[in-house]
Design goal:
single chain, 253 residues, mainly alpha, two-stranded antiparallel sheet, 2 strands, 2% strand, coiled coil
C-alpha cells in the first residue's frame, strides 16, 4: 500500500516540486546539468550540494517515518480520512523509533549525496573528455578543409594564366616558359644534328686513315698521292675562283 499524502494543493505542489528536483535520473538526463554546475562556481556548488543533502534527508525521513497502512484498508478508505491532526498522527514516528529512523535517514541521505556527487563528477569528466575530442576533431577537419580548398583553387585556376618565377627564370606565365623551352629544345636538336654529322665525318676519316696504314708499299703511296692530289685540286680551285673574280672586277673597271 502507498503512504498517505496531504491532499491539499499546497502539499501536492511542494511534493511534485521535490520529486522533480530530487529525481537523480531526471537530473542526469538534463542537458543543463554540467553547464549549470560549471557556471555556478565553488560557492554555489557547495550550496547546491547542501540543498541536495537536505532534500534527500527530507525524502528519506518522510518514507521512514510514514506509518504503514493497516491490512485490508484500501486507497478509497484512506482518502476519506479527514483532518490535519489525524494526518499528523499517521505521519508521526512511533515511540522508541526516533533514534533508529534518524540514523537511517542520515545514512541514506549521506549515501544519496555521495552517489549524486560521484555521478556528477563522472558526467563532468565524460563531458570534458568528449568536448576535448570534439575540439580536436574540429581542428583536424578545419585544417583538412583548408588544404582541400587550396588544392581545388590550384586545380580550377587556368594554367596559362599562372605566373611563376625563380632566381634563374624571369617572371612570366607558365605558357610563356613552355614556349621558351620549346624554342631551346629545337635549337638543341639542330645543334645535335650538326654534331652528329661532324661525328660521322670524323669516323669516316678515321676509317680511311686506318685503312691506309694497313696497306703496304704502293697502297700507302697511292693513299698519300690521292691525298696530295685532293689538296692540289683544292688549291687550284681556290686560285681559279680568285682569278675569275679579279677578271670580273677588271672588266667592270
Amino acid at each position: 500500500m502507498s503512504a498517505i499524502r496531504d491532499p491539499s494543493p499546497k502539499a501536492l505542489s511542494s511534493s511534485t516540486t521535490a520529486e522533480k528536483s530530487t529525481s537523480l535520473r531526471a537530473r542526469l538526463r538534463s542537458e543543463d546539468l554540467v553547464h549549470h554546475h560549471h557556471a555556478a562556481g565553488p560557492r554555489a556548488d557547495g550550496q547546491s550540494r547542501r540543498d541536495i543533502y537536505r532534500q534527500l534527508q527530507a525524502n528519506f525521513s518522510a518514507v521512514l517515518q510514514a506509518e504503514p497502512s493497516k491490512p485490508g484498508s484500501t486507497n478509497a478508505q484512506m482518502a476519506h480520512i479527514a483532518g490535519k491532526e489525524e494526518l499528523n498522527r499517521l505521519l508521526s514516528p512511533l515511540p522508541g523509533r526516533l533514534s533508529r529512523t534518524d540514523s537511517q535517514k542520515e545514512s541514506f541521505a549521506r549515501y544519496g549525496q555521495d552517489v549524486y556527487n560521484t555521478a556528477v563528477e563522472a558526467v563532468q569528466s565524460a563531458h570534458k573528455a568528449t568536448s576535448s575530442e570534439i575540439a580536436g576533431f574540429q581542428a583536424r577537419v578545419s585544417s583538412t578543409l583548408g588544404r582541400a580548398h587550396a588544392l581545388y583553387d590550384n586545380i580550377v585556376y587556368p594554367l596559362s594564366a599562372t605566373v611563376c618565377h625563380s632566381e634563374s627564370l624571369p617572371r612570366a606565365s607558365i605558357a610563356k616558359h613552355i614556349r621558351t623551352l620549346q624554342k631551346r629544345l629545337s635549337a638543341a636538336e639542330d645543334e645535335l644534328e650538326k654534331l652528329n654529322e661532324e661525328w660521322k665525318a670524323c669516323i669516316a676519316e678515321e676509317v680511311r686513315i686506318l685503312t691506309c696504314k694497313r696497306n703496304d708499299g704502293d697502297d700507302q703511296a697511292e693513299c698519300l698521292k690521292e691525298k696530295y692530289l685532293r689538296e692540289v685540286d683544292d688549291i687550284v680551285a681556290k686560285k681559279t675562283s680568285e682569278i675569275n673574280e679579279l677578271d670580273r672586277v677588271s672588266r667592270r673597271a
